Amino acid sequence: MKWDEKLSGSVQHNNSLLCVGLDTDAEKIPGFLKAKKHPVLVFNKAVIEATKDLVCAYKLNLAFYEVLGAEGSLVLEQTIAAIPHDVFIILDGKRNDIGNTAKKYAQALFDMYKADAVTVNAYLGKDGIAPFLEYKEKCSFILCRTSNPSAGELQDLQIGSTPLYQVVARKISEWNTNLNCGAVVGATYPEELRLVRKILGNHVPILIPGVGKQGGDVEKTIRYGTNSQGEMALVNSSREILFASSGEDFASAARNKAAGLRDMMNTYR
Amino acid sequence: MKWDEKLSGSVQHNNSLLCVGLDTDAEKIPGFLKAKKHPVLVFNKAVIEATKDLVCAYKLNLAFYEVLGAEGSLVLEQTIAAIPHDVFIILDGKRNDIGNTAKKYAQALFDMYKADAVTVNAYLGKDGIAPFLEYKEKCSFILCRTSNPSAGELQDLQIGSTPLYQVVARKISEWNTNLNCGAVVGATYPEELRLVRKILGNHVPILIPGVGKQGGDVEKTIRYGTNSQGEMALVNSSREILFASSGEDFASAARNKAAGLRDMMNTYR
User: Fold this and answer.
1) Is B94 an active-site residue?
2) What is the ipTM of this complex?
3) Per residue in A27-59, pLDDT tens?
4) Which of A24, A190, A229, B176 has CA 20 to 30 A from B189's CA?
5) Strand pairing of A158-159 and A162-163?
6) CA B113 vs CA A70, A109, B26, B184, B223: distances in Å
């Protein structure tokens, strides 16, 4: 199944644009889990079980698994296996390298871990991205405008009268010959999000981190990030949902937070 | 020991600016190794044993280990353990993320795998790099001008009259308050290398991939990449050395190729 069918299926089935970020910091999970074997996996499975009917996607940031060493690879694999087959899976690694090396990253993320989508960084230009785009059934979200405070330091540099992040947005349209490019734009920059959606048109998905702990506004995120059908935006929240409670009720607290966020998003669609 | 002491120690001890890239593609190693347990590890150990007196550094590109899953983490760890304590170790992952996540990557690469240096991508600006730079004893090589054919697609964009890669070089100087920044510049772009060395001055190391298979010129690489003392350049070759022979003599063939390259580099210092 091509990525866009799977994504629109999960968006419609769960009536949701919410992407839950399984950025599971092993140091922050509830203390009582830490004595268990593979505590991050136990935590992830509980969060997935509690939220799987509320989300369009899960996004796993690879840093939180890489830091676990060999166990991280196993936890990543088994977390992915615990996600229902009809929910979209994004592996967020922001990978970038020259062609023959980028191909290995693409194999790791798409073939081995079975991601539906990945995030990539375009600083190397088209040939560093191409090995990902060759997976025509999969989607590659290209960093455009990131959510962090110093995002503008390079991304706002003016090329003529166009900031770099908009040049990247135009490149994304140009590179999108297989209809499998997406963009990453932070919710913390709503005006930039509006301009990127305008450049990308209706058919390119935007992955939008930065609501929740980072402070992005939900209403503007939905109004500016979605296309004219109120779709093609995946709004990610991680810490706010994962660590809604540090007690034994962490999963139900995550569910409550996720449900509230999904419903709030839907009021603005 | 601070990174620059260790690096200048290995440069002087082995009289070498050669960095061997252990970008070990499991599909390309000699066939007779494939029946062994952990063939990539066996291969790496043999290459290290055959070249360890000829190099200033080894660079391990993480893509080739990530694609091996949990085994990759073990192979990475044990390859690093097989490198002599006085040889510089670079983990090449080109990682980039927002602050709290970049911190996890830094922990993984510096604390867990014990790298002396890493490569990072600066598209997110200072705060995505800062968690790496906080490791004051370690070095972070920031992508500046990459070696691939489409490098210029973004990196040559003109900011006023300055191309982006030179803006990044200036940022590297600005961010270098802990004296632990390096730059990555491809040997395939000698004029750009010359200009970046000029911007960075004498004390910032440049990691230079792209000689060998990618076609970078060794003479220009050394003349333009080193500082006024003929140091602070790490010239990486991977495939040309690793896969010099596909037979049982692969390690001695790697040694011959590495020795030739080191000696050629030294004639131009």
Assistant:
1) yes
2) 0.97
3) 999 999 999 999 999 999 999 999 999 999 999
4) B176
5) antiparallel
6) 11, 21, 21, 21, 33
